[in-house]
Amino acid sequence: MWDDEQKKEDYEEEYIKRCNVKERSNAAPSDFKQLLTGGYPYVDQTKYLQRYYADKTSILCSADGYGKTTFLSMFRYFYDKNESEDLFADKEIARIEPDYKKRMHTCDVIDLDFSGFRGTSFKQACQFISSVMSKAYAKLADELIDRLDHRELEEYLDILEQKADAKTLQYSLKTLIWHYLWHVRLNSEGRDPEESLIVLIDNLVVTEIYARHYGFEKEMKEFNNHFICDDIDRKPFLFIQAGDSVVTGYSGKQYGCFQYQDAIIHEFKNQKEGQPHIYMYGENKEGKSPAENTGKIFDPAKIPELRRRAAQMRKQEKERVEEEERKEKALYAAPLPDGVIIPSANAGARECDIPTEGETYRSKNMLLRSLYRCYEPEKGFEAIYGEMQHLEAGISTDWTDRDMQSIMELSEQNKERWNSISAKNDSFWNYLFVTDHNCHLYGSVYNIKVYITVEGTKLRKLFTGAMKILLERGTHSFAGKVSKKKRLEHMCFWVGRDDFFLLEEYFSEYADRLITPIPFVAYRGKLGISREFRDWPSHNGKQAQMISDYFSTIRDEDEISVAEMYSMFVRAWNGDLPQDHPMIRDFKDATAQTLLVLLDSIDVIFGKKAIDDDHLLLSEDEQLWEALSRGRCWKEVGDIMLGRKTKGVRAHPSA
Fold first, then answer.
1. Residue 499 in contact with residue 409, Cβ under 8 Å?
2. Residue 309 has what DSSP assignment?
3. CA-to-CA separations, 162 to 20, 49, 182, 216, 248, in angstroms, rounded
């Protein structure tokens, strides 16, 4: 790390001057084979072959001329399965590992050499990187091309022909690696499990030095942050980056390109006194990649035929998608089958009828407008969810972790009635989970979800009393949570139908202490009622998602209409909106449970129906909830309820 900015700039300038020196009197080839056969001085480094292979990820750092490029070349000659010559029989690796040949020539090797870069603009950098990646893609082409779909194949050919744009290039290494891992390592039978991929990168830092010196540092930094992505080192292959120690030292801090805790300083930089340095100047300094000199070379004459194949694959894919969309459209258009009984006026709904007159409608519209003013699209539905919850994280309720101890002591007195009792807490909630011998778990779609908000300072008393009632008289697995922070919901319970009536009876004695503030939850008296969804998020989360999607379709808060929002929601679920509509993304493949719970809740809010004892939200029909929580169109719901087999609709591509 440079502690003096001027010294760093001086080093960069000197480095660029040295890069431009074409020849040196003591020049030796950096190619491992040429070094051995040419009679040049050589320090045997082969004992490190096994160590660095085991490490899987390494950065080789040293001053210029200490053999980093030669070390990478040695790796390639040893592991590359396209090599056949044994250059190691008289080397140290043969002495310390007599069966070294079992590992030799077993791997695919990508060799990326950036040492020849001399560009003075970002455009020139992209052109150089394009040529480097073209050679890498050519080397693995025979392994991969027949395994790619048409989109992957077209992008692969663009890189081969050096036609890819900068955005494609900056992800090209990661893309190539993933193609290899998925198509070769994971999905190929009969391959040796020891076969691996080795990525050797020589002097990528040269691009950064030139970028800083010639004024395109910002573009190069952004490019390299994606090119050498921070998750590459976690993949199951060997990744080695070689670069000048000084450059690598500041690169990791200033550019963020190399996300490694410790750079490995290879031991062979500390050569014996009197041993001549081996300077690395030669053909590779002119930008000639070692990958060009070895292995199978992809035949460019194949490209026109591959382009035709990609076009044919694209046509077939289009026809397949169109056929699936036709079948899917017919499936979504099918009505709820005759004979299927669902206790909801919205069963089979294809449109939404919300009364647009009256104070309730105006107040909900005003609420949406206030949320819209806080709406930030990039934060998604979580921002809307937070606003709707009115969470005041800095203000505590009268409930503390210590209060849960008294609940646990109370549960000990009733533990013989239950299969298990457990508690947990986090920054915002205390939870109690109580399971009966039928093992119906908390959060199941069969449970009624009850919201309670307390006015004043009776939270401790009311929650403790409710838990006492359920522990002593409850008949079904249940759970409860109580908030440690001020918010719109202070308590929440998941209970069976009979236990709901116990809670309703208990809280009726404290009706003057309860309020009903949650805006899109249906209330029966002072108890908010919903159901737990099989797929997260909760009722309030789904509502926030609907609102967020709706907001992304309007331009001005004066356009806001609760009725239009719910109409969009119903049409999205029935597949009646354009495929690129925001609500299609989030609700076309939602379950019927989501649709009916939200629609029935809004009906209660607008006074179209009250929650009586026979209301859908209070139903304990497990077969019904199973069908609603799995069916993604009315036909699927009906088939499940009638016991027919159904394959289900495919997930929407944008979901």
1. no
2. H
3. 26, 33, 24, 21, 28
How many angstroms separate the Cα of 559 from the Cα of each of 387, 572, 583? 20, 19, 17
CA torsion 196-198-199-201 (nearest 10°) is: 180
What would you measure as the largest C-alpha separation in the chain, in angstroms? 98
Please provide residue 448's backbone torsions phi and psi, each rounded to the nearest 5 degrees.
-85, 135
DSSP element (H, E) containing 528: strand 527-531
d(CA 92, CA 470): 75
Give the pLDDT confidence score for residue 348 in this predicted structure.
95
- In 3D space, the residue among 119, 130, 133, 111 whose CA is nearest the CA of residue 20 turns out to be 119
Query: What amino acid occupies position 281?
Result: Y
Q: Which of 224, 232, 8 is nearest to 117 (CA)?
A: 224
Which tokens sit at 652?
A: 């929407």
**Rounded distance between C-alpha atoms, residue 398 and residue 484, angstroms:** 7
Tokens of residue 224, six digits: 């390299």
Phi then psi for 453, rounded to 5 degrees? -120, 130
> With a threshold of 0.70, does the pTM exceed it?
no
Cβ contact 219:122 at 8 Å: yes
Give, in order, the Cα–Cα distances in Å from 88 to each of 174, 195, 598: 32, 20, 71
Residue pair 264/55 in contact by the 8 Å Cβ criterion:
yes
C-alpha dist (Å) from residue 548 to 336, 578, 644:
29, 18, 36
What is the rounded CA–CA span in Å between residue 317 and residue 564?
Answer: 36
Cis link prior to 537 (omega < 30° from 0)?
Answer: yes
In the block, which residue shows the tokens 């986090």?
426
Half-sphere exposure of 404 (CA within 13 A, CB side): 18
Q: Say how many residues make up the chain.
A: 655
Q: How far is CA 54 from CA 48, 51, 427, in A?
A: 10, 5, 42
Which amino acid would we find at residue 116? G
| 59 SS3 class | strand
Tokens 């249940």 appear where? 478
The answer to whether 418 and 442 are in contact (CB under 8 A) is: no
Handedness of CA 18, 20, 23, 27 (dihedral sign): positive
Interacting residues of 203 by C-beta distance below 8 A, sequence separation 6+: 69, 113, 114, 115, 117, 242, 243, 244
CA 519 – CA 521 distance, rounded (Å): 6
3-state DSSP assignment of residue 480 = strand
CA distance 495 to 477: 7
User: What gap in Å lies between CA 510 and CA 561, rounded to an integer?
Assistant: 36
Q: What is the Cα–Cα distance from 283 to 272, expressed in whole angstroms?
A: 27
Residue 389 near residue 487 (C-beta atoms within 8 A): yes
Structure tokens, 398: 């009268």
Provide the CA 571 distance to its chain's centre, in angstroms: 29
Coil/strand/helix, residue 539 = helix
Is residue 533 within 8 Å of residue 590, measured between CB atoms?
no
Write down the pLDDT at residue 542: 94
- Both tokens of 559, joined, read 């356009």
As a whole number of angstroms, the distance between CA 587 and CA 597 comes to: 13
* Spatial distance between the Cα atoms of 493 and 481, rounded to a whole number of angstroms: 7
**What value, to the nearest 5°, has the Cα angle with vertex 499 and ends 495 and 501?**
120
Question: Which has the closest alpha carbon to 390: 529, 485, 458, 514?
Answer: 485
Mean pLDDT per 10-residue run, the chain (655 residues)? 53 64 57 84 80 63 70 88 90 90 88 89 95 93 90 94 94 89 68 66 85 90 78 53 42 30 31 31 31 57 91 93 92 93 95 91 94 83 85 84 88 89 90 82 78 91 95 93 90 95 96 94 97 86 94 92 96 93 92 96 95 96 93 94 67 35
